[in-house]
Amino acid sequence: MTRTTTTDGRREEIAPRSGRAPGAWPLVGHAIELQRRPLAFMESLIGHGDLVEIRLGPRPAFVICHPDLAHQVLTDFRTFDRTGPVYDRSRAAMGSGLATTTYQDHRRQRLIMQPAFRHEHLRGYVEVMRQEIGATMDRWQEGDQVDLVEEAFTLTNTISLRALFSSGISAQDAEELREAFDVFLRGIYARAALPLVGRIPSPANRRYVRALGRWRTIVARLIDGYRREDAEGGEGGEGGKRDDLMARLVEARDDEQQAMSDEELSDQVAVLLLAGGETTSAAVVWTLHLLQNHPHVLAALRAETDTVLGGDIAGWEHLRRLDLTARAVREAMRLYPPAWILPRTCVRDVVLAGRTLPAGSTVVFSPFVLHRRPDLFPDPHAFDPDRWLPAEAGAAPHRTSFLPFGAGATKCIGEDFGEAEATLIVATLTARWDLSALAGTKVSPVARAVLVPKSLPVRLTPRRDPGRGGAAANAGSPR
Questions:
Q1: CA–CA separation, 63 vs 80, rounded Å?
Q2: What is the mean pLDDT of residues 297-315?
Q3: CATH 1.10.630.10 fits 1-93+346-403, yes or no
Q4: What are the sequence ranges of the domains in the chain?
Q5: Per the count of CB atoms within 10 A, which of 117, 234, 262, 399 is most buried?
Q6: Is residue 90 pLDDT above 70, yes or no?
Q7: Is-contact 216 208, C-beta < 8 A?
């Protein structure tokens, strides 16, 4: 139920209400608005109801603007499934992995993959993160001008590939996979909003097709080589087996003791790179950008990192003590949730906000919309990590309304991995470097499959602060 405060301080409950967005164009509906100014349009829907009808071409779609409705949609996978043209196009590109598969196959995949993401394995993944963060810090030099979007994307995808394949992937293959994935992410949103875009024989579409072909070829070769090496007792941990994420996925079985096929493994690679690479890099970039524009928060965060890290690269032993850093990352994901829009299809008639939606209806879940409701997050456009303090400290974080990782059975399986990765990167980078935005830089989100700025160019300056973590001499690999 929607809770509002009356003028005398009492609380009252009001049932979620449905509404309709104005301004639909003949034939195309709101598709032009979604292409031209998607975020502003989506946020405007808050004023039209808790379940708002929009038009995608001639067909209606229903946008969830209330957390109770969002939980209903996300937790009832039998009613709200991943079917329809958007997911058909996603599966054609990425395969039928955990983030794109339908209800029929999701439970089996989740059961197989869940053990690989147990908390007991996180420490090993964090060590990979620490090594790659250190390598990036070694590469950066005073006065360098870098694009933080590209740097973060490269770093998080390298971490994801190493967590997946240990050291069994070449630098060339890793770079080609990153490039192919970037092309895919730039193209899939346009195809979802305007399906006819994919049929135009444009240079962008030709790049898209080539990138996907290259992606599939490389991943298939990696898995084939991995299978052969594993069967021959190749390099790795005890018993000649690798101790990495792919090893755990290869060995995992469902409740009928069936393993994943090579095709299924290939599909999961795409999902894991999306979750562990692009979405995490977006969280890192937005956090760094917001910190640069809120110097008082940056100063407090650096006081924390100077004390906790003491000049080290952030690692497992520091993670629990980086409280403000973790809250800053969480607040950045509230303002700019990476997976900002996700569709579902009603597979049977259902009532939402008092309205009956017939089977076949499209329902759109957008954490970007939910996170900017002023009744749930006071002063919703403000960057305020303190809103995530424990309730006893005076904050009211509305955790049930914070859904960047989704909810229910389809909640992101790599949530702990991604939050740890973003926290470690932000902590180490801000402890060691001052980032100066280049003159004339305008940072704005680009709405594609993942919400991220087009670019964020900065100049690097090692911190000269006398604090323990501020000396330039501390840059380098972890001790």
A1: 13
A2: 96
A3: yes
A4: 1-93+346-403
A5: 117
A6: yes
A7: no
